[in-house]
Design goal:
The protein is α+β, with helices and mostly antiparallel strands. Helix content is 29%, strand content 25%. The longest helix has 12 residues. It starts with a strand and ends in a 20-residue tail after the last strand.
């Protein structure tokens, strides 16, 4: 099994959640967080640059402000990793800076607190 951690735009969380449910991934954890990628992006400047304002274009990349994001954590069996990653990408990809990032990490075991089950049996109906 693998943990898929994704950091996405705040306004994409509902679309991502619905897409994951439709893909058969019903369990997830989401947290509000702050962050920025390697590109320094100020969303107001980006919007101004897209509208062609020279002042905004000149200032792009000079902001180190952290932006509100959502961190999503999903644990899936190995057979669902690629489908889950593709689903997250499809729900969040706009082609613009700030779309997000995904990490895939190994999970060595999982244990249900309620039932003490462990391993893949803990995962929802996979």
């Amino acid at each position: 099994m693998k943990e898929i951690m994704a950091v996405v735009r705040m306004n994409k969380i509902n679309e991502t959640k619905k897409a994951l449910i439709e893909a058969g991934v019903s369990s997830m954890t989401a947290l509000e967080c702050l962050g920025r990628g390697k590109g320094l992006v100020n969303m107001a400047l980006l919007k101004g640059a897209e509208q062609g304002y020279e002042e905004a274009i000149a200032q792009l990349g000079q902001s180190d402000r952290l932006h509100p994001k959502r961190a999503i954590f999903v644990v899936v069996p190995d057979k669902l990793v690629q489908k889950t990653v593709n689903t997250i990408i499809k729900a969040n990809q706009t082609g613009k800076s700030g779309d997000g990032v995904i990490w895939v990490k190994p999970i060595y075991d999982s244990i249900s607190v309620r039932t003490s089950e462990n391993g893949d049996a803990v995962l929802d109906d996979f």
